[in-house]
């Protein structure tokens, strides 16, 4: 359901009752320490895709939304350039399914912005790979690879997708485009992870690889029983990723098994040495800082804090200036104010010994799991990962 956040006073009801009693609108929603305009914008340029991946969060109700026409997107690029946006990330759906993708990128470049793209890689060839390189403004193309062979990858993403994705990587590399790869970890590919990392780094010579796990929304929610990892799967995935990172230093993760595995090792080491956490960043719902430097635009023109929160519509391109949305939207003020919520106010976290290390996890994941933005993400909960939480066990 689409929700609009237009009243600051009405937003207070979304905060924990104990916190709401302690604060006023003035203190909770005081001016934000963020840029006057967003530094970057993520655009889901289309809902159309040539695949039906089991792990796709941008599916179902999202695909039903109408794609904006070329003229509107060109106007959006002009507006982004006029307010000083520096970087645009194009995703979908599959961006390369748009017949006007050259026009959109050319207008983006004319407005002196840089861009990156998330793609399944299947539609890249020599011609469009050269186009990306010749813009001189393409930072990187991220391709999704979820298996070391067609047997694994195609089972998740569709028949024939592995061969074409690998070929797409080759075309882009030959053209001189920086290629990164995203691996979405799930039950179907956990035991293939060592082979995937060897393929990407040693055979395909990819410079940078990142990992995450399937987000329980869209197609991934429908396929959750098939994709969701067991506690043993998670331990195995963490072990594989941590070991691989020793050999491949550019292997990274913002969330999922590798990120959580590293954080758990740090926590255990700190506690075993009787030390305090190394920073004062933890203890609040601060995991997501995106609302301080970027906006997201969906393929129907809806402006949202994140494409994984499509129900939180802040406005529409062409109706409300993006600069106005950025500076005045109560929805963004709410998301920024979320970072002021201490974990001890949350019923699930008030007595947790790991509070000082924790930042609550992804708000979109928290919403998907609990129906509340002012809650922890249980998939990033250290107690749950360690089997110490009776409420939520992996």
TrEMBL record:
| Alphabetic keyword roster | 4Fe-4S, Iron, Iron-sulfur, Metal-binding, S-adenosyl-L-methionine
Q: Which Pfam families match?
A: Radical_SAM (PF04055), SPASM (PF13186)
As given in the record, the signal peptide range reads: none
What CDD domains does its record include?
Answer: Radical_SAM
| PROSITE patterns in UniProt | RADICAL_SAM (PS51918)
Q: Which GO terms describe its molecular function?
A: 4 iron, 4 sulfur cluster binding; catalytic activity; metal ion binding
Cofactor(s) it depends on: [4Fe-4S] cluster
**Record domain Radical SAM core: where:** 33-247
Which protein, by its recorded name, is this?
A: Radical SAM protein
Write the lineage as a comma-separated list.
Answer: Bacteria, Pseudomonadati, Thermodesulfobacteriota, Syntrophobacteria, Syntrophobacterales
